[in-house]
Amino acid sequence: MGTLGAILKHPEDFPVLVKMMMASSRAEKQIPPQPHWAFCYTMLTKVSRSFALVIQQLGKELRDAVCIFYLVLRALDTVEDDTSIPSDVKVPILKSFHSHVYDTSWHFSCGTKHYRVLMDQFHHVSTAFLELGKSYQETIEDITKRMGAGMAKFICVEVETINDYDEYCYYVAGLVGLGLSKLFHASRLEDLAPDDLSNCTGLFLQKTNIIRDYLEDINEIPKSRMFWPREIWNKYVDKLEDLKYEENSVVAVKCLNEMVTNALTHMEDCLRYMSALNDPNIFRFCAIPQIMAIGTLALCYNNIQVFRGVVKMRRGLVAKVVDQTKTMSDVYGAFFDFSSLLQSKVDKSDPNASQTIELTEKVQNVCRASGLLRERRVYAEEQQSRQTALFMMVMIMLFSILVAYLYSK
After folding, report:
1. I need a surface site. Which of 57, 197, 312, 356 has the fewest CB within 10 A?
2. Predicted structure pTM score
3. Catalytic (active-site) positions
4. Residue (of 399, 387, 393, 333) closest to 364 by Cα position
5. What is the pLDDT of residue 396?
6. Is the pLDDT of residue 387 over 60?
C-alpha cells in the first residue's frame, strides 16, 4: 500500500516509475552469461538497487570495473558493519582485505541476507576482478587497502570531533570518490579530477547516509554503530542514543539540523566536480546520486521522523531524477530546487539557521551564475489541483492498459 498510496498522491510519478521498471527489466536481461559475472551483476542489484540503476549508464569496460569496485568495497563494508565480529578478529581482516581480491579461494562468512551470500561466494568477485585491466586492478587494490586501514583505525576509536567525522567519511566514502576518478581516468574518458573535489563527492553522499540512517545505526544489535560526532551531538544530549527519545524531540531536531548544515558545506565542490566531467554516461552516473543526496537532506532537515523511522525520497521522485538528469543544467536545476525546499524549512530560531541559509543561498547563486539554470521547481513538493489529479489518474489507467498489452505480446 505504501507505493500505491504514493502513486495516488503523486499520480504524475506513474509514467516515470513504469519507465524505470522497464529499464531495470532490460538491464536484468543483459546480465552476462559467465557464472562469475552473472553473480556479480545479480548481486549488485541485491545489495544496492539504486547503484545498479546508475551503473547501467556506463560503457561495458568501465561498467565492469565499477561493478567490481563497488562489490569489493561492499564486502569490506560488510566486515566493518558486522558488530558481532570481535575487534581482534575484525581489524586484521580489514587491514588485509585488499590482498584477498587476488585469491579466488578466499571467503569469510559474515553479514546477513544478501551480504552474507556476497561474502560466502566472494570467489566470483575475485575471479571477475582478475579479468579487469591492470590499471583498474591497481586502483581497486590501492583504494581497498587504504579504506581497510582507515576502517580498522575507527574500530578502535570513536568519532569525537568534526575533524574525526571528516576523516572517517574520507576513509569510507571520500576514497570511493578518489577511486572512481582514477577508474574514469584509466578508461581514457576523463581527465583526472583533483583529489579534494573527488573527496567531497564521497563525503556529501556519506554524510547524507549517516544522517538518514541514525535510527538504524543506533538500534544495531548487538552493538550500536555511532558515526555522528560527539562535538555536535554533545551540545544537545548526554548520549547519542538520547536523540531518539520523544522527550528530547526539540533538541534532537536542532542537532539534526546542525548535521545537515555540516553536510551542505560540500555542495559547491560537488557541483565543481560534476561540471568538469566530459563523458555523458559518466556524468549521469555521478550526477544522479548527488541529486538524490541533496534531495534526501532537504527531506531530513527539521524532520523529527529521522528519529522515528526511515526518511527517504519516494520511488517516483527517484525515478524522476534518474529519468531527467542528462545535463549540467538539470543538476543546477535540481540543486536549486532542493536547496530552496530545504531553505523554506529553516526556523529562524534554530541555532544554525544563519549558516544554513548562507550555504543554501550560496549554492543557489552558483546555479544562477552558471547561466544554465532553468528555474522550474521540478522537484518541489506542490499540491495538485483536483482536475489535474483526475486527469493524471485517467492517464495512468490508459498507460497501464498499454503496458499490459505490450507485455502480453
Report:
1. 312
2. 0.88
3. 168, 212, 225, 285
4. 333
5. 56
6. no
